[in-house]
Amino acid sequence: MGHQAGCELNRTRTPVTIKGIRDGLVFILHDQCSFEEIVEDLEDKLNGSHRQLLTGPLVHVTIQSGSRQLTEQEQEKIRVTLASHGNLIIQEFQSTADLLAKTKVVHPPHLYHGMVRSGQIVEHEGDIVIIGDVNPGGQVHASGDIFVMGTLRGLAHAGCRGNERAIIAAVFFQPTQLRICDVISRSPDLTREQQREMSATEMEFAYLRDGQMAVDKMNHLYSIRARED
Predict the structure, then answer these.
(1) C-alpha distances in angstroms, 218 versus 44, 89, 118, 147, 202?
(2) What's the pLDDT band for 52 if we cut at 50, 70, 90?
(3) Are 91 and 61 in contact (CB under 8 A)?
(4) What is the mean pLDDT of the chain?
(5) Nearest to 66 by CA among 38, 46, 87, 45
(6) Coil vs helix vs strand at 158
(7) CB neighbours of 229 closer than 8 A, spacing ≥ 6?
(8) Three-state SS for 75?
(9) With b meaning 16 or more CB within 10 Å and e meaning fewer, what string describes 113-125?
(10) Residues above pLDDT 90, as percent of the chain
(11) CA 205, CA 199: separation in Å to the nearest integer?
């Protein structure tokens, strides 16, 4: 029984399905069939029913294996099988796990209206916008950026899942502690000249520069990111 029987019961789903796309071909391997059946059907198609289709100029091939995780030996076996047709170039092996890993989940920003009081923690997977102040003892944790549309006097931790490009922005900076990724700063290190230049009407932001916490005016963010990129 095993994989063999499972595939026999689903003959409408062949071990290998070949589809054309704009950039080449996709070989879809049925993940309920045994690998031996996959190779046998692949060879049948390459040397029989699809022989004319697969001859001609170079064609890029993507191998999709569904939930099956192909071993290095299995991938090599497929490469050798396709090598019998010099025009077929394997571009990529894809599994469901690979596709999920490449898919970036985007979380909408969390808008928090009000004051974050001492002992209170506001957390979110993504960006956080605080419409109010963060008091001493209050904490804000975000995997993305943090924007405080008021005074930041408490703790703010941006990029808490490892995002080193995250920022912490506030209208007034008086934090007890800033954290970006795993870098911690008690307070931004500003010279007296910088303090004079920072106007109370201009929003400021903290970011990582060469692994160290730095603070600048919000309207400089674009130019700073452009230099980094």
Answers:
(1) 63, 49, 27, 11, 7
(2) low
(3) yes
(4) 83
(5) 38
(6) strand
(7) none
(8) helix
(9) eebbeeeeebebe
(10) 40
(11) 13
Cα(6)–Cα(34) distance, integer angstroms: 9
Question: Rounded to whole angstroms, how far apart are CA atoms 137 and 10?
Answer: 62
Residue type, 173: F
- Provide the CATH number for the domain formed by 110-228 in this structure: 2.160.20.70
Q: Where are the domains of the chain?
A: 2-102, 110-228
> What tens digit of pLDDT does each residue of 119-135 get?
999 999 999 999 999 99
**Amino acid in the structure at residue 1:** M
CB-CB contact of 89 with 58 (8 Å): yes
CA distance 218 to 195: 14
Do 62 and 94 form a contact (C-beta atoms < 8 A)? yes
Q: How far is CA 32 from CA 1, 10, 96, 101, in A?
A: 12, 9, 14, 22
CA 169-194-189 angle, to 5 degrees, is: 65
d(C-alpha 15, C-alpha 34), whole Å: 8
Which tokens go with 100? 């999920």
Distance CA 11, CA 18 (A): 16
113: Cβ–Cβ under 8 A, 6 or more apart, which residues?
Answer: 131, 132
Model-level pTM?
A: 0.54
Burial profile 20-34: b = 16 or more Cβ within 10 angstroms, e = fewer: eeeeebbbbbbbbbb
